[in-house]
Amino acid sequence: MSDLRDLYQEVILDHAKHPRNCRRQQAPSCLAQGNNPLCGDKVRIYLELDGSVIKDISFEGTGCAISTASASLMTESLKGRTLEEAYRLFEEFHHLVTSPAEAIAQFPELGKLEVFAGVREFPVRVKCATLAWHTLKAALENKPAVSTE
Questions:
Q1: Into which CATH architecture does domain 3-147 fall?
Q2: CA nearest 29: which of 136, 101, 127?
Q3: What is the mean pLDDT of residues 64-78?
Q4: Which residues, 6 or more positions from 6, have their beta carbon under 8 angstroms from its beta carbon?
């Protein structure tokens, strides 16, 4: 196994075992619940907004390592960003995990999120990786729930 692949697995496993920003917010500006009925992943995203800036973001949920790591890395990546930046990162992340490798452009803003590039090779895992992101989008659009059926 290559060193790069080992690093990617290490980052995902670290965030799955020790998720960052995994907590309930008492008075969020918006929140939404996400559900992947195919594998049982569930997530709730909490956002505290200050105008158009994500002042705080956190999550609670149960799920596989990919789902938990994705939510953890997403919250780290979005804290302090504008809503416009959040929507752009959503699109870039979704493109990263759903497009063929040869069609992937470089997205320097993704940073550590690029560890999920290999998910595209396992279509059933794409829903695990994107659940938190679709739930984030639902929260920003004042939709209380989303399902990745």
A1: Alpha-Beta Complex (3.90)
A2: 136
A3: 96
A4: none
